[in-house]
TrEMBL record:
InterPro entries linked: Snapin, Snapin/Pallidin/Snn1
Protein name per Swiss-Prot or TrEMBL: Biogenesis of lysosome-related organelles complex 1 subunit 7
Domain of life: Eukaryota
Keyword Coiled coil: yes
Keywords for this protein: Coiled coil
Region named Disordered: 1-23, 143-163
Stated family: Belongs to the SNAPIN family.
Basic and acidic residues compositional bias, start-end: 153-163
């Protein structure tokens, strides 16, 4: 019995075609120009939208911070007026409304901050994925050009041995 007959096949269960991990499919990914073009197209569509959304969230957060500061200063002024008057007006309800508005703005600001952090992570992932894809494409083009020249040399040697 030879060693070739006793050795198990080279392909194990993890490398079969039902495996869906992108890391295991890098070779397939580099060899599919349609998928690369589609991916680049989607990235070029999504990146400006993510950038625009990020800028709008920043602007909204800045406006909310300014509004929060104005509400605080207005609340302070109303409290001073209330203290200065001997016969106080019914400003307590308005102060409470301002405090409630301030709390709501704080909640929305926190939500926007979490959203912006998620967008920043998404932006970083897009950048990382794009650079990784470019590196893979560069590596595959170097490999394909060297393998094609090697194949050409092997073909020339085969032709030379036949003559």
């Amino acid at each position: 019995m030879s060693t070739e007959e006793s050795t198990p096949p080279a392909m194990d269960i993890d490398t079969t075609s039902d495996n869906t991990s992108i890391d295991d499919k890098i070779e397939d990914f580099c060899e599919n120009p349609t998928r690369d073009a589609l991916t680049e197209g989607l990235m070029s569509l999504l990146k400006p939208t993510v950038d625009q959304l990020d800028e709008r969230i920043r602007a909204t957060r800045i406006c909310q911070i300014e509004l929060k500061q104005r509400i605080e200063s207005l609340s302070d002024v109303l409290n001073k007026i209330n203290e200065a008057l001997q016969c106080p007006f019914e400003t307590d309800s308005y102060v409470k409304k301002l405090i409630n508005a301030k709390q709501k703005i704080t909640v929305v600001s926190n939500i926007l901050q979490v959203t912006q952090e998620r967008i920043n992570k998404l932006h970083q992932a897009v950048e990382k994925n794009t650079s990784k894809r470019k590196a893979l494409l560069d590596h595959s083009s170097i490999y394909s050009s060297s393998s094609s020249s090697t194949t050409h040399v092997v073909e020339e040697k085969e032709v030379g041995t036949e003559n």
